[in-house]
């Protein structure tokens, strides 16, 4: 059989995402903060889109243009996942939208970025933390393979505060080493930057920092090493009695400790980021009735530019072909943006309204009464596709009388219950958390005991399921929760 090149005709159907469809889907996925940035970026880049500062300034659109957001509300909600026009062809698709272009401004105005603009992949990186910093320093130390192994083990077992969370015996056992070798490597680790690293507690960390300054015999060193508990409560009288020093000397030593030393040396190298939550929708109870309100704070009202609309409407002003094409494109892009924004807001409202209907017991009585719910239930209720519901509920939050929750929180699998209706897994987690909070700290409940207590209320789940839920809630096992009398 010979190898050759040949042409072959093939007829096939496939879904091609138009720019309008991509616009609607992207807007639907944005949370409250991202939406505000997207609107500002679009206003800046599309001259046909303006902020409507007054309702009186809204201009009526001419009949030549397609109806904008000011038109009457559609009779039936359109599903953005299936809204593809049959008239769209491959030639009409802007394939540049799928290129590796830097689109942090998130514009639908189809503005071509500069040739030297950075790629979005240039920003996919991990910020180096404490472990990377210590590894870089260890690379410049003369250590043999075994010592380097122990050093890396110690570095990997430092918490976010820079404290060592394993004992010397555990290090010896894990690395099959001896006490002298481990202590030698630990001293090397404690000589690295930042000062006070690899200490067991705050007292040792502060003492290591003073030792690095050559003040290991100072009054401050005596206080942090032997009397840290008195320092925490600023008990000057007991400190004077314990050290035999005068009050002004004690005060100077404490001022030096608080101003020059760092109790948690690892914190400046922590890579944890703080994510602030702004609710996308509010649910208030007013006079016994729940009211849903979308969070429109700082979201401007948009309209088409009256000047651009007048250019297309006024037949007396003859625009060049290129100019008319440009104005038409910008007006059409602005109109689709407003329409997609309106559809996004209506979709979120309808989804929240459906969730409120299904989870009324939660809003009335709390998380313990959360019912099983899947995306299909809401999709069938509001006559939309499941993928649309998934996009609406992703990375969006609601403020309720019970607290702030992600919309995904209300969707949970069903746990069968004998002699009663099924419960949501989140409801089971709430019951387990309540049991652990109320337990006797000297005799905490084991996973088997929690399973047996749940069985008494006709909730039969296995011990390993209890353990899985406990780990998901980041609750320690029984041996770590036990406290001595």
Describe this structure as you would to a colleague.
The protein is α+β, with helices and mostly antiparallel strands. Among the domains are: 130-269, Orthogonal Bundle (Arc Repressor Mutant, subunit A); 414-481, Arc Repressor Mutant, subunit A. The chain contains 20 helices and 8 strands. It has helices at 19-29, 32-45, 130-138, 145-156, 168-175, 179-190, 202-212, 219-226, 228-232, 236-243, 247-260, 306-313, 321-358, 360-365, 375-382, 386-393, 425-438, 447-455, 463-472, 478-481; strands at 49-51, 281-286, 289-294, 302-304, 397-400, 403-406, 414-415, 423-424. The strands form 3 sheets. It has a 4-stranded mixed sheet with strand order 3-2-5-6, covered by helices on one side. A two-stranded antiparallel ribbon has the order 1-4. It has a two-stranded antiparallel ribbon with strand order 7-8. A hairpin with a 2-residue loop joins strand 5 and strand 6. The N and C termini lie far apart (85 Å).
Short synopsis of the structure:
By secondary structure, the chain is of the alpha+beta class. The protein has helices spanning 19-29, 32-45, 130-138, 145-156, 168-175, 179-190, 202-212, 219-226, 228-232, 236-243, 247-260, 306-313, 321-358, 360-365, 375-382, 386-393, 425-438, 447-455, 463-472, 478-481; strands spanning 49-51, 281-286, 289-294, 302-304, 397-400, 403-406, 414-415, 423-424.
Structural class: alpha+beta
Apparent shape? extended
CATH superfamily of the domain at 130-269: RNA polymerase sigma-54 factor, core-binding domain
Identify the strand order in the major beta sheet: 3-2-5-6
């Amino acid at each position: 059989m010979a190898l050759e090149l040949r042409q072959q005709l093939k007829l096939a159907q496939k879904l091609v995402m138009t720019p309008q469809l991509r616009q609607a889907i992207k807007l639907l996925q944005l949370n409250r903060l991202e939406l505000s940035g997207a609107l500002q970026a679009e206003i800046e880049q599309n001259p046909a889109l303006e902020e409507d500062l007054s309702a009186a300034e809204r201009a009526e659109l001419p009949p030549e243009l397609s109806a904008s957001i000011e038109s009457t509300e559609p009779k039936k909600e359109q599903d953005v996942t299936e809204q593809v026009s049959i008239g769209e062809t491959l030639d009409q698709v802007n394939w540049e939208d799928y290129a590796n272009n830097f689109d942090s401004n998130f514009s639908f105005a189809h503005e071509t970025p500069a040739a030297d603009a950075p790629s979005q992949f240039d920003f996919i990186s991990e910020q180096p933390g404490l472990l990377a910093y210590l590894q870089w320093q260890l690379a410049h130390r003369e250590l043999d393979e075994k010592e380097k192994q122990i050093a890396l083990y110690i570095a990997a077992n430092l918490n976010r505060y820079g404290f060592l969370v394993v004992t010397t015996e555990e290090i010896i056992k894990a690395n099959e080493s001896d006490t002298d070798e481990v202590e030698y490597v630990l001293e090397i680790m404690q000589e690295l930057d930042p000062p006070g690293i690899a200490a067991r507690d705050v007292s040792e960390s502060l003492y290591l920092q003073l030792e690095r300054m050559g003040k290991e015999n100072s009054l401050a060193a005596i206080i942090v090493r032997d009397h840290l508990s008195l320092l925490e409560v600023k008990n000057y009288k007991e400190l004077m009695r314990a050290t035999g020093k005068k009050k002004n000397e004690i005060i100077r030593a404490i001022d030096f400790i608080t101003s020059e030393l760092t109790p948690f040396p690892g914190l400046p190298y922590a890579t944890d980021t703080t994510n602030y939550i702004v609710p996308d929708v509010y649910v208030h109870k007013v006079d016994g009735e729940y009211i849903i309100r979308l969070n429109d704070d700082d979201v401007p009202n948009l309209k088409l530019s009256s000047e651009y609309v007048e250019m297309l409407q006024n037949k007396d002003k003859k625009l060049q072909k290129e100019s008319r094409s440009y104005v038409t494109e910008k007006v059409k892009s602005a109109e689709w943006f407003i329409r997609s924004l309106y559809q996004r807001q209506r979709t979120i409202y309808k989804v929240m309204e459906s969730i409120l209907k299904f989870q009324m017991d939660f809003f009335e009585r709390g998380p313990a009464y959360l019912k099983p719910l899947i995306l299909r239930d809401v999709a069938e209720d509001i006559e939309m596709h499941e993928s649309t519901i998934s996009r609406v509920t992703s990375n969006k939050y609601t403020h309720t009388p019970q607290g702030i929750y992600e919309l995904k929180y209300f969707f949970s699998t069903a746990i069968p219950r004998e002699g009663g209706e099924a419960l949501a897994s989140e409801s089971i987690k709430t019951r387990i958390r309540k049991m652990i909070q109320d337990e006797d700290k000297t005799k905490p409940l084991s996973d088997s005991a929690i399973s047996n207590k749940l069985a008494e209320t006709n909730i039969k789940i296995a011990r390993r399921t209890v353990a899985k839920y406990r780990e998901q809630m980041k609750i320690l096992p029984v041996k770590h929760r036990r406290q001595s009398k």
